[in-house]
Amino acid sequence: MTMQSQYEMPVIVPLTEGTWYQFVFLGDKDSKLYEVRMYDWGEKQVVYKKNGIENNLIMFPYIPKQTTYFMIKPVQVSNIKKKKELCGYLIIFKKVK
After folding, report:
1. For the chain, what are the domain ranges?
2. Going by CATH, does the domain composed of 2-94 fall within 2.60.120.380?
3. What is the 3-state secondary structure (H, E, C) of the chain?
4. How far is CA 85 from the centre of its chain?
5. pLDDT for residue 69
6. Chain center to CA of 76
7. What is the band of 18 on the pLDDT scale with cuts at 50, 70, 90?
8. Average pLDDT, integer, range 62-66
């Protein structure tokens, strides 16, 4: 997805109660800060992860306690002042039986 430096990119996903998910955010290599926040539908923050320049990959597992929509908000800050548009990837893996 195309992202703008310093702005969150909200992504809404339906998740199923008791199902194991693995979330992966891969940010632009020219960024100096990477963050991912995840909120339940009641806007309660359930996950917060942050990386600096040393690693442009954020991964975390999550098992929802209820079936509902969740909002994932990745953000990154460019290390190059004039570079405003950044590339980012959000990948969601779901464990199936």
Report:
1. 2-94
2. yes
3. CEEECCCCCCEEEEECCCCCEEEEEECCCCEEEEEEEEECCCCCEEEEEEEECCCCEEEEEECCCCCEEEEEEEEEEECCCCCCEEECEEEEEECCC
4. 17
5. 97
6. 10
7. very high
8. 96
* Residues in CB range of 34: below 8 A, 6 or more apart: 25, 27, 50, 51, 52, 55, 56, 58, 74, 75, 76
Mean pLDDT of 41-70: 95
pTM of the model: 0.90
Report the side by side order of strands in the sheet with 31-39: 11-15, 68-78, 31-39, 45-52
Q: With beta carbons less than 8 A apart as the criterion, state whether 78 and 4 touch.
A: no
Q: Report the C-alpha gap between 27 and 47 in whole angstroms.
A: 18
Higher local confidence (pLDDT), 79 or 38: 38
CA 66 to chain centre: 20
Q: What is d(CA 46, CA 22) in angstroms, rounded to the nearest whole number? A: 14
